[in-house]
Design brief:
The structure holds two protein chains of two kinds. By secondary structure, chain A is mostly beta strands. Helix content of chain A is 0%, strand content 50%. In chain A, β5 (44-51) and β6 form a beta hairpin. The N and C termini of chain A lie far apart (37 Å). Chain B is globular and about 40 Å long. In chain B, the strands form two sheets. In chain B, strands 2, 4, 5, 9, 10 and 11 form a six-stranded mixed β-sheet that branches. A five-stranded antiparallel β-sheet of chain B has the order 1-3-8-7-6, with no helix packed on it. Chain B has strands at 3-5, 10-14, 19-26, 32-38, 45-51, 56-59, 62-67, 72-77, 86-93, 99-101, 105-110. Chain B contains no helices and eleven strands. The chains are: A mainly beta, B mainly beta.
Amino acid sequence: GAVVSQHPSRVICKSGTSVKIECRSLDFQATTMFWYRQFPKKSLMLMATSNEGSKATYEQGVEKDKFLINHASLTLSTLTVTSAHPEDSSFYICSASGARATNEKLFFGSGTQLSVL
Amino acid sequence: SQKIEQNSEALNIQEGKTATLTCNYTNYSPAYLQWYRQDPGRGPVFLLLIRENEKEKRKERLKVTFDTTLKQSLFHITASQPADSATYLCALASSASKIIFGSGTRLSIRP
């Protein structure tokens, strides 16, 4: 099956710094990737849809200047949390729809636990 | 408004029994519904997909039903094992380009 690699798995940073999270499709090309945020014991909240070569589509209530998404190649999407604050602490997960580019089966990265001090 | 509800936040059952998880939705007309498993600190893993014109789908010890009249899907794990303990998420395709997830049910199988 398709493999999605997410890095780093855990990051601790000081308030005000920016953090970049990478999501790579290892054995397929992903024209679309999704970024989710998850709070403890809660479900995944879709933040944005990342499209290769074009601007990301953000969900309502998600600040695009706060959460910068870049999908510069068919195998890499990045999420940068700019000027992070403690309320940005969360579990961030990316997903891709696989080589067939259908959302009938999503492949997820292993997630990034962000802790902002 | 559109809603996906997984009725039980947590479910605790005895090993060997059948676990049944429920997913209800309102104000959606999904083309398909998916079930995922998520372990703590990990990303979800795809388990099964069932389409709107399918009543039931099976995969090994897993069975999923889909009732578009009731707007409900049931997810069964037969002969449950402690290794089945995890959070199970249902998900709907709300449009051609995005998947929306339910809040999940934490399943615990006690030996």
